[in-house]
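FAQ: What does a ligand-bound record look like?

Like this one, built around FE2/S2 (inorganic) cluster:
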Amino acid sequence: MDMPLPTRGRLDPAEMVQEGRVHRAAYVDPAIFEMEMDRIFGRAWLYLCHESQVATPGRFFATQMGREPVIVARGRDGVIRVMFNRCTHRGAKLTMDETGQAKRFVCCYHGWAFDLDGKLAEVPLPEGYGDGAYPPEDGSLDLVRVPRVENYRGFIFASLAAEGPTLAEFLGPVASSFDDMVDRAPGGLLEVAGGVSRHAYDGNWKLVIENHNDTLHPRFVHASSVAAARDQKDTVHSDGAGEVQIKQMRQNGAPAAVWESLGIWASASGHSFMGDYHTDAHMAARPAEDPVQMAYRKALEETHGVERTEEILSIQRFNTVVYPNLSFMSRFRQLRVVQPISVNRTVVTTYTFRMPLAPPEMFRDSIAFANVVNGVGSLVLTDDLETYARVQDGLASQGGDWVDVKRGMGGDANEANGTLRGQTGTSEIHLRAQFAAWRRWMTA
Amino acid sequence: MSAVLEAPPPALDPALAALVIRESALLDAWKLEEWLAMYAPVCAYWVPTEWDQASPHDTVSHIYDDRRLLETRVRRFRHAMFHAQKPPSRTVRLVTNLRAGPVPNSTLCSYEVAEFRNNRHRRYVGRATHEFEADGAGGWLISRKRFDMIDCDAVLDGISIIL
Ligand code: FES
Ligand SMILES: [Fe+2]
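The answer part, i.e. the structure of the complex:
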């Protein structure tokens, strides 16, 4: 017999995560959402941007860390800093642009001007503010800095908490997915390019983070696009964009045995990654014998040598989730940032990466791949978004308090790299890891 | 800008104008196979993410379909498990300020798609450009349709209909 839990807004997160199940309030209770913003998004390492987005002094990038608007800016000294996007006078947001080139951040309201490092540099009509020098020399009206910023191989993270594990400790074994992405780029060079795809859905932020390594859903959620792509004649004209997308849709229809035999790994911090279900014959990208692929391999060998290149290309990893809000495809160079808006509204922003030293056709392929995997009008993504909304609707009902995450439970196995591996590729091990991490953040 | 305004406006070809109206009507009537038949064997249906986006190949798009993908898109509507179309959408399109387009054999119009689905009313508003090519039998086929939405760079919910 299930014990009833206290009513809305008064649940204890420690009780909400139990062996193989999670209380629905984790998805629908606004009070739990606020607690998540404080305890998870207010403390965990959150991905902000790639260093190519703030490549030179004066480049800035404005984003959110949970509820907090922040500016990532490269100073004249070349140092990347993260500051709250809030004027220290009476609170106006300093920049409304998402990216740009600045000499200073000048507030629209009364003209206070802040240097790229956050220092209050100039206050117009200073005498009127009263005694004491404006700007004050003690820095008390400088922009507030986000306390911790770290860069792992070009990927910039920050934490709103002054203390906690280092980024390396936090990432643990999933740091290897960033290695995979960078190592696959000739010269180790990557840059964000090709615009951004953004989508929103009426559902909790955890739904998309849970779905990205869910290898069981494609045969159900994506049945319509798989069938439509399979029935498509390849003699019909494509300029290459449709070809990439149709290949990807067909690959989503891989037989159950392929999904079951994939690896799925999860870490104690709630992160996870899954193996790749693309075979060379059905790559959404190009097969090994394609001239573009051969030129790419050659460029990679110039960076790493033949042996190491072979090793790098043998890694088969499709998607990695860094809990709570980052999901990326190291091999396909797609990176998704999940931004919670409210308990039942979420925005996902996708960035595509170009490898400047790889054949340009590969970037063209990446753009087509981005459109099918992360485009708001995609034949694939639209069914995922519909599903998230239906889950949110269902969980708001009183037709059951628990979400079941038992698939593969009991078969989780310790691996040498510090992860747990799911018994089969469709294990819900990543969900159990996410909620173990969730419980720790929410109760400690 | 003023040079553009001073140049005599090219005349709108009434045959092309009729096709733009027909295209909209077929979509509203869900006659998707007939709609597809209006398109050329080499064609594009494009909804950019950036206002004045130059290319569908170096920047992401909400939708960029070549002929092969467009056929796949249409076919999916006939599948029983197209979840994002359950319940299906009802649409009405407004085509207005229709005039000759920027290149020969093209039209430009203000275009709005009103959608109602699952108790939600949405509007997609922008400018649509249609390019045509002769079909060899005295008629025209659409070689390219481009829909620039005024909120192309906004955060959008899933778009499950053809715009
Ligand atoms: S609020 Fe920024 S200068 Fe007054
Ligand atoms: Fe999916």
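Follow-up question: can I read anything off the structure? Yes, for example: Residues 15 and 140 of chain B are 8 Å apart (CA to CA).
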